[in-house]
Each structure stands twice: as structure tokens, then as C-alpha cells.
Diaminohydroxyphosphoribosylaminopyrimidine deaminase (Kribbella antiqua), 149 residues
Amino acid sequence: MPDLDDRHWLQQAIDLSRHCPPTTTAFCVGAIIVSPTAEILSTGYSRETHPHDHAEEVALAKLTPNDPCLATATIYTSLEPCSKRASRPQTCTQLILAAGIPRVVLAWREPTIFVDCEGAELLEAAGVEVLELPDLADQVKQINANVLG
């Protein structure tokens, strides 16, 4: 069940996605990794440092691998983490699982424009708590209007 902190942090991730360089071939996504004590551990957004960057990937890359803080963190992402990817060897879902993050909060399930995404299902099957706040999805859709057509 969402609380006010979940809404706050997910809104921050959505706002971060507004910094993405626009393109018609990928979504604009923001991600924030937060500790249980409300400390921002890392942030990222799509195409932040490279045209193929995904938000969750960028946020995780800014942290030390196996950082013990990740075992209790939540990653807030404006769009469902990818489960299929051509541009990099690992998907964002795989990266989240490898990092050991136990909780993911998202606003919008990825539509089947580019791939049939199963990120939320794969995360849940691996024991990760996945919380969707679909009432925030309209903001994400507006930010991605150039992709949606």
C-alpha cells in the first residue's frame, strides 16, 4: 500500500524524467533510489550520459556494486523497468535484481510500443515488492507524448 513518501519520491522521479533529451525512439524515464531513512542514494534519467542510457541503469551505475544500502532501498521509477533490451547486455530488471533492491515503485507500465515488457512480473516472481501508482501515469504519458504519437 502506498504512503505519502511513496507519492513524494515517485513524483520526484517523474519530475527528473523531464530532464531527458527527447527522442521518438525511447521513453523519457526518471529513477531515484531511496533508503528507508529517506536518504537519496542515487538518481538517474534516460540518456543522462549516453543515448542508450536507461534511468534505472544510470542510477545504479552511480553506486558502488554490492552497496549494503541497496538491500533495504526502494527504487522509484516513472516507467516500468525494462525486461528486454537490444542496446545493452542487461535489462534494468536484471540490474535491479542483481543489486538486491527489494522494492520498486512505478507510475506506468510500459506500453507495447517498442517491446512487450514484463519487468513488473519478473521482479514480483523474484520476490521484489512492486507497487504501481497508476494515478500518476498521466504525467508520464504527457512527458512521453513525442513517443506516443
The chain has a mean pLDDT of 91. Strands lie at 30-34, 40-45, 74-79, 103-108, 129-132. The chain is about 30% helix and 20% strand.
